[in-house]
Amino acid sequence: MQHQTIAPTPMPSGPATPSLRPALFARYRALEDLRHDYPLILVDRKADRPLLRPLSRVIDDTLKRVAPADLSGEALRSQVLRLEAGIRARIFAGREGRLSDLWREVAAEMIETSGEAPFGALDNNLETARKALPLDGMVIGCDGETPGKVLRHAWDAKQAAKAHRFRKIVDGLILKLEDILKSDHMKSDEAHGPSALASAMGETANGAIDFGALSSVLHRARPEDRLPADRVDRIRGALGVLRCQPFFGPGRASHNCAERRDPYSYTFDTCSAALDAYRERLPDVLEFTKALTVAELEVAHKYRPELHDGILASFDESDLSAEQINLLPSALVCLRDGETESAEIARSYEALACGLPITVMIQVDDLLGPTSPEPPAHSFGAGTARLATMAIGLNNAFVLQCASAHIHGMNAELERGMEYEGPALFSIFSGATPSVPDVAPYIVSAAATESRAFPSFTYDPSAGGDWAARFDLTYNPQREADWPLHRLDYEDAQGQRQSEEVAFTFADFAACDSRYARFFQPVNGEAREEAPVTVRDWMKLQRAAANFSAPAIPVIDPDARLFRVTVEGKLAEMVRRCNDAWRRLQELAGINNSHALRLLQEDRLKREQTAESTPAAETPEPVAETPVPAEAPAAAQEGAADGAPWIETPRCTTCNECVQTNSALFAYDDNKQAYIKDPDAGTYRQLVEAAESCQVSIIHPGQPRNPDEADLEELIERAAPFN
Amino acid sequence: MTATMTQCLTQLVQTDYGMTDYQSEIEPRWCTGCGDNAILTAMQRLCRDEQLPPEKTVSVSGIGCASRLPHYMNAYGFHGIHGRALPIAEGIKIRRPDLSVFVTTGDGDNCSIGAAHWLHAVRYNMNMVVMLHDNQVYGLTKKQASPTSPKGLTTNTTPFGAALNPLNPLTVTLGISNVSFVAQVVDWIPELLYEVLHMAYKHKGFSFIRILQRCPNFMDHHFDNWMQDPARTRILTHSDGLRLKPELSRVYKKQETHDPLDMPRALALAALTDEVPVGILYKNPEVPCYDELRAGERPSTPSLVETVLNEEFDKVGIWPAETAEAGR
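^ Those are the sequences you sent over. The predicted structure of the assembly is below.
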């Protein structure tokens, strides 16, 4: 989409007009007509569904399902796209609601304006498409509240998953502990009493059964092995704690707790409140963790008081493992620049640094701040764009920085940050800057990323041990470059189409802020001899030379007329600082890494120096000869050389024939298979008879050991087939 | 992954189970020379090697010589009624998935009166090990023909010889949908009996092992032809099945590499009559298990079950008081 601009137009002298905009904004004037990432749907959580999905993608998915690709689907496609435009218009007007509700509302309006009857073709088509919607959820636009809504939605989804897992574990344990107590109760006098037996039979017995007699019969056969009293007490104690835990709402097995308190809330406006709550709830956390451990050990019947009592008695917060902490809910703290006390920033870093399960969101609405050096009340200072970079230094926290416009693009990273088992910081720029009145927050937030004023990145300590694995700068446009380059098409004073490549810089981002308009001065083409220098060229100048010149950027006025303005003094310095910060980030991501570049340079120099001398041929390492595999282990002993009796023990089928003949001569080994225990403990006759009766013929009698035994000749003959 | 606190504390409790920990106080009352002894020993070895806690192990049986096995195991046991070992075992498994369930049954118990349960248990594919002690005769009741008795066998019920061809438990099991593990082994090669039992235990699903078992009293010398001639035993080996040790390899030279996923070949092997195939005929770990499919995401509490059942009954309930009032 191209726009009509006329350039260059001489500017009226005097102060610059407050409604400047970067020239590249010209094509995004009617945002509500464009299909982009907003309106965004906060998807109702279900397995294998994303957290967020743009309305336009959902509509495309739906149309792919219901509208045939050929001409026959054209009517349905255009109707549904019109409906989508209707929903988008409502969201832009400030409405909010669930997708299904908005759909019905817009569909009813479309049917009414079309004059078609209900249940007509239009109604049918829209209803068919509505039924094919793959998901539902709240539809939101891009404004100052967006970051909070998205973060709360993601956090709620994570807590719901946690609650599910928690209840599965805890309810399972409660039921198993109750089973143990129940099976013990069945052995009690009470359970065998006539009244208990009568109630077990229900109301239909009608006196046909004498429960007293039945009770006395059962009493005689009652097992005596009751559980020890201390074990019953321990199980009851653990059950009480698990049933009444205050962390999540009750599950199926724990709704019957009489002393149940309301579950704790885990969303806070300040880190101080979150830290106080953590300290206050610590005794409950410890009590619950101990009860959970006791329950798990009791269910496995592995609790040994002499071993475990002492360990559990000395268990305190320093013993809490990450896994135990992660079973419980984590805290969400939402801070907002301009509203939260400035001191909260320091506290949030303190909370993140100590590794508590806390998710901190810092929302920034105003990146540039006022032009005066001192920060206003409740501001996080001029460094709001660097808060996330500072948090990387803590090293144990997951850090994500992005602008509202890129939230959907970084959906997977957002989810990963929520899943991260440890503290997390999300720094989000909403784009709803009060001093930028005429530009949609979506555009402002996208421009912040584009201009490197607020780059998107993640730092994930769980992803690996080095920077390359942990730090990700992928979600920035043209991340190899200082500034992203774009083609600008315009119409010159002669009505000719012109095209030039311009960079979108920090100065362009500042150009839409009315407070900074005073730093832009229109270029008077006639006053200067040479063409105005671009920001890119200006950055290349030595600092001394740069002080005598000013970079210029192309901007447009409200009528989309193109002209150039120079960037003056303080703002030019801010451009330089922004570029410096960006280059630091690039280095962390491995782009133009200064250490690597230096090494490369040194290496190149070395190679040039040694190029003339021929490198000595390396002597190949003598290859160690492959060791000859050892001979296969000698075959199992096939017979005792000295004529002693023996048994092929591994083939024994435990049939008892031989051990019943003479249990001193034959015995079973650890695998309950027979061997000759003592060849002198029996007669040769017994050996021969055992060999004959062995079903699997594995007994070998050998030679007689006592030459005086009777009938030896006959026995040796009978033994021959087995030797 | 680091160990949880419970795992660490459990480690403190020494449990080193030996063979005797699985032997009950009752001495086996099987006849001397009976193959059941070998099966019991293999099972106790497996329990020892896998360190299965006796209180987490259950053996379930029906009626017959083989079904006496639970009495001889020092573990939980259920000596059930004739042919009903499998439904009892299924009930135990679905209520207590944490237990290791072993079923011992005989050719009469499983293939005659319990045949219907056998078919459906294979189809349910619940995680348990089933050992079919097949001695081809009713031994406990002193020699009557069972479904697997060979044609012509003279018994108390077939004085002129069994009239029909025997039922083949292997081909039947292989023919049932959802079958996931079928093996055959003989009691007189204890190493292979143990190996196959071990693989059956490790398999997730219904592991069916037919064990050819000697009965020295009523089928004396019946298996001698196979026992004494290693050439009539065909050992099925595979990287995903049995692997023979060199000692056995020297004795049993007839070996075949058989892929346990090859069903047509498994059926052909199962139908062999002059040779005994020994090893894993079929093994497919991908078959869904009914106990896992039916396990809810959330635990069902007794009170919830009662509430839901009452609601269902109330839909069709006839209330005496209301009926009486209506009749007035």
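The mean pLDDT of chain B is 92. The radius of gyration of chain B is 23 Å.

Shout if you want it in another format.
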